[in-house]
Amino acid sequence: TAKQRGKGNWVRYTPGMDRPVFADAQLGGDLRRALDAGEFRLLYQPIVRLADRRLIGVEALVRWHHPERGLVPPLAFIPAAERTGLIVPLGRFVLRETCRQAAAWLAEFGTGALQKASPNVSVRQLHDPDFVDDVRAALADSGLPPDRLVLELTESAVLRGPRVSQVLHEVHGLGVRLALDDFGTGESSLSLLRAFPVAMVKLDKSFVDGIELGEPGTVETDARQAVARAVGHLADALRLETVAEGIENEDQVRQLRRLGYTVGQGYHLGRPMEAAQITALLAEQAKAAAAA
Ligand code: C2E
Ligand code: MG
Ligand code: MG
Ligand code: MG
C-alpha cells in the first residue's frame, strides 16, 4: 500500500489505477492459466557471423498470445512474473522449449549448422532450489549437448545473492555456457567476469546506437566507439566471446567489425521470428553450402 512505501511517498490516485492493466494479483492467476493453456510461445532472433551473415545461433524471446489482449511483449509481464514467482515455471518452459527446438534443428541440420541457442534467465530462477536440476533435465530430455546451450543473465542478476555463485558454477559444471546480457549497462563490476564462469558478453544496444555516426577520426566519433572498443579488448584479454546487440544498419556492422566484433544480432540482421522461419533459413544455408 501507499502507506508502506513510507512518509512522503503517497501515491496520487488516478482513475483506473485500481485496475492497472496487469495488477500482480490478477496477473499471477492469469499467468498460471496462460501457462497451462499454452499461450506462451517463443520467437527466435538470429545471431549471425558479421563477415558472411551466417546464422550461428538464436536467442529465444518469449511472447504471450493473450486471448483478449493479443500479443503481449515480455517487458509487460516478465517483471510481474518475477515479483509473483511465476517466472520460475515460465522460465522452466522457456528453457525446456529452447532445448527441444535446438535439439530438433541439430538433428535436422547437423552439428555444423547452429552453434548455440540462448534463453534468457531471470535472477529469481537462480534462487529456485530446483534450477540446476531443471537445466539438467531439459538437456537430458531433449538430448541437446550442454555446450549448445547459452544462458543469458543480466549483470545485476549475477551480482545479487550469495547462492547465485554456487548455482552458476554448478550449471557451468554441466557444460552449459553463460552470457552476460546487456553488458555495460548493469551495476557492472569487472571482477564479475573473473568470479563467474562467463563465456560470453553481449554488448548492449545502447553502445551500438549511434556508433556509426560522426566524421571518422573526430573526438565525437571516438567517444561513441570507446565503450564498444573497451569491451572488445576486455573480452579478448579474458578470452570471452562477444555478441553486439541491437544492430539496425549496415554502417553499424562496418564500425563494429572495424572494432573487432565478429558476431552480432539486431533487426538489420534478423528480427525475432517463428521457429519455422529459422528452419527455412537453416535449410537455405544448407542448400547454399551443398552447392558451393
Ligand atoms: P534482451 O534479452 O536484451 O533481448 C533483446 C531485445 O531487444 C528483444 O526484445 C529483441 O526483440 C530486441 N531487439 C533485438 N534487436 C533489436 C534491434 O535491432 N533494435 C531494437 N530496437 N530492438 C532489438 P524483446 O523480445 O521485447 O525482449 C525484451 C527483454 O525481455 C529481453 O531483452 C529480456 O531481458 C526479456 N526477456 C525476453 N524473453 C525472456 C524470457 O524468456 N525470460 C526472461 N527472464 N526474460 C526475457
Ligand atoms: Mg537476452
Ligand atoms: Mg540483451
Ligand atoms: Mg537488451
TrEMBL record:
Residues 24-286 form the EAL domain. Keywords: Membrane, Transmembrane, Transmembrane helix. This is EAL domain-containing protein. It comes from Actinoplanes oblitus. The chain holds residues 459 to 750 of 750 of the full protein. The keyword Transmembrane helix applies. It comes from the Bacteria. The lineage of its organism: Bacteria, Bacillati, Actinomycetota, Actinomycetes, Micromonosporales.
